[in-house]
Amino acid sequence: MTVADIFIDGVGALPPVLLAPMSGVSDLPFRRLARHGFGGLIFSEMIAGREMLQGTEQSLRMALFDADEPLASLQLAGRDPGLMADAARLAVDLGARLVDINFGCPVKKVVNGLGGSALMRDEPLAGAILDAVVRAVDIPVTVKMRLGWDRDHLNAPAIARRAEQAGVRMVTVHGRTRDQMYEGRADWAAAAKVREAISLPLVINGDIETAADAREAMRLSGADAVMIGRTTCGRPWHARALADALAGGREVEPLPPDEQARLLIEHYDLLLEFYGENRGKRIARKHLLRALGRHAGAADIVARLVRLDDPLAVRRLVADHFGEVTDPLRARAA
After folding, report:
1. Which of 105, 128, 134, 301 is catalytic?
2. In 10 A of CB 316, how many CB atoms?
3. Full-prediction pTM beyond 0.90?
4. What is the Cα–Cα distance from 108 to 92, expressed in whole angstroms?
5. DSSP assignments along 96-147, one per residue
6. Per-residue CA distances from 169 to 8, 73, 98, 141, 226 (Å)
7. Do 84 and 78 meet the contact criterion of CB atoms below 8 Å apart?
8. What is d(CA 286, CA 24) in angstroms, rounded to the nearest whole number?
9. 171 has which bridge partners?
10. How far apart are CA 262 and CA 27, in angstroms?
11. How many CB atoms lie within 10 A of CB 275?
């Protein structure tokens, strides 16, 4: 099966690369950049169903989609089946074409509220949430989970099987347990037991950056596609580059420096426009630090960046760092 099979009405071919829901990262400006030349699924940030129904400014901002965002995909977190069903209905009203249920978030704030990966310790409640959301909407419902709470409780196959029974259309497995958080290496092979348990499209997630990683993760897990997340921070174009590499049977080709600089400055400007200058500068700094920190010997430019507050100076620093750039970029940074 392919990722496109989850849409009953058909959407044409989709690449076997999905862009993960990432809190504080996959907002509307990030998704706009990631969509350049990439036709795969890109998920919103994780949104708490209760806050979404309360109409908080932050949750509604997180649920914004562009009118031309063709496969708007929204991830919900929560532990109340009725509330999650109502939030899924609201997601449809806001333009979502797919709702993903979060059974995988490991952070304390979510787990202490008995959401995210905490639901893997309560299989009956997890099943009730799956049933309620699937019944509530006519769009595809998917689920993202971890291997289990810890190595002694690897129950992802059981929950995936329950998800298929509920009518869920796709399962994503992050190859870690909750107690690992983001430490160690993702165990792609452990997800093979999920592949054996379901006939749905399976997506493998965790520590996938290169085309070689993606191919090996799919081989070991039996998955139909990969989901990438943290590796795209500071480079929202990476999903497209990885999809192109897989389609071409090669390794990922880095963007030319001037193109990287142009896109980073475009992302910077989008963030300032979307959040307002003061908040936007703080959020943008996080993305730029990740982008520039990947480069050898970047300690100096990173130190300079954290001291800059003027947007013009930030743009100029990025343009200068990437060397010779195109005239439009020089005009934008000047």
Report:
1. 105
2. 17
3. yes
4. 29
5. -SEEEEEE----HHHHHTT-GGGGGG-HHHHHHHHHHHHHH-SS-EEEEEES
6. 10, 13, 10, 6, 16
7. yes
8. 10
9. 143, 202
10. 19
11. 18
Distance CA 117, CA 115 (A): 6
Residue 117 CA to its chain's centroid (Å):
16
Q: How far apart are CA 81 and CA 254, in angstroms?
A: 44
Written as one string, the DSSP assignment of 228-248 is E-GGGTT-TTHHHHHHHHHHH
As given in the structure block, the two tokens for residue 319 are 């343009």
Q: Is 105 annotated as catalytic?
A: yes
Q: ∠ at Cα 144 (197, 184), nearest 5°?
A: 95
For tokens 């249920």, the residue is: 101
How far apart (Å, rounded) are the C-alpha atoms in residues 213 and 231? 12
Q: Which two tokens stand for residue 228?
A: 């990438």
Closest by CA position to 71, among listed 140, 23, 132, 134: 140
CA gap 192, 225 in Å, rounded: 13
Helix spans in 167-256 (H)? 192-197, 211-221, 238-248
Cβ-based neighbours of 224, under 8 Å, separated by 6 or more: 1, 2, 3, 16, 201, 202, 203, 218
Q: How far apart are CA 129 and CA 119, in angstroms?
A: 10
Question: Burial code of 152-182, b = ≥16 C-beta within 10 A, e = fewer?
Answer: eebbbbbbbbbbbebebbbbbbbbbbbebee
Walk along the chain (334 residues) in steps of 10 and give the mean pLDDT of each run. 74 88 96 94 96 92 91 96 98 96 95 93 97 97 97 96 98 96 95 98 97 98 97 95 97 92 96 96 94 82 90 93 55 47
252: which DSSP letter?
P
